[in-house]
Amino acid sequence: GEALAVSARVAPLGSRLVLLLVEDLTEARRIEAVRRDFVANVSHELKTPVGALSLLSEAVMDASDDPEAVERFAGRMQIEATRLTNLVQELIDLSRVQNDDPLEDAEPVRVDELVAEAIDRCRHAAGTKEITMAAAGADDLRIWGNRGQLAAALGNLVENAVNYSPARTRVGIAARTVVQPGGDLIEIAVTDQGIGISEKDKERVFERFYRVDPARSRATGGTGLGLAIVKHVAASHGGEVTVWSAEGQGSTFTLRLPEARAARDRAHRMSHRD
Ligand code: ADP
To answer: Which part of the chain is the Histidine kinase domain (predicted)?
Structure first.
């Protein structure tokens, strides 16, 4: 009777331990698979422009007595080289946001400056498509975070809004404070009147290298990493990014990030707790 009772007491604990170990292994295996997929994706993404460059340089050599053809091929080489540069830069950005703790050198970051920078970065692309960009509400708002990472995140959202919109539409950037008991948040919403995203793709667009339409993304110089970077920046700042979209009508990507004063007060309270 005694032995039975003991084993009955031990058994649930034992099976829970086994279960934990199995879960741990599954999680480790999943992470390993994600890592392997990522390396395979990167290799593939690098190979495409490098392969094109190699073919194009051969074509230039063969066409040396046809200046018009040389010019055409050289133009395409430039496009492929830009693509390669973008991809390498975004890979560097992604590894940076994954490895650096943004709150280590956090500071109050002015939202109006972030918005102006993001608009500046897209001015050329927006201009050629006659897309109007308008910002509202950003004055006097500050986020607690890493300036470079926040700029990269907002820049990516505005860039996408321009890239995935037809000519003569509007991109709006609206910022406001959301008062919350746990500490105020700054909300920045980027709205476009573009192609939109289907219900099924909405969950996946934040994955690394996921694109709804790879050809379109590539044509605009997209790398498929932008939203993965945005998501990581939001999460590591203790915030989030969400998307609302209707196919054929447009999308709104919303960033919610800690307000500077609220975040600093909270950090202060935590460090002075008995
Ligand atoms: P990309 O470099 O391809 O733009 P992202 O990670 O920034 O990569 O976005 C992933 C995919 O999500 C894009 O390829 C596109 O299909 C979709 N997407 C992102 N932003 C928008 C938007 N504003 N409107 C419609 N589709 C979008």
So the answer is: 41-261
Q: Is residue 155 within 6 Å of ligand 1 at its C-beta? A: no
44-60 pLDDT per residue, tens = 999 999 999 999 999 99
Is the distance from the beta carbon of residue 226 to the nearest atom of ligand 1 less than 6 Å?
yes
- pLDDT, one tens digit per residue, over 143-153 is 999 999 999 99
ipTM: 0.98
- Pocket test of ligand 1: the residue of 199, 205, 231 to mutate, having most ligand atoms within 8 Å of its CB, is 205
Bridge-based pairing of strands 185-192 and 250-258 is antiparallel
159 CB near ligand 1 (under 6 Å): no
Kindly state if the Cβ of 222 falls inside 6 Å of ligand 1: yes
The pLDDT mean for the chain works out to 90
Give the contacts of 246 (CB within 8 A, at least 6 positions apart). 196
5 burial via Cβ count (<10 Å: 0-12, 13-18, 19+)? exposed
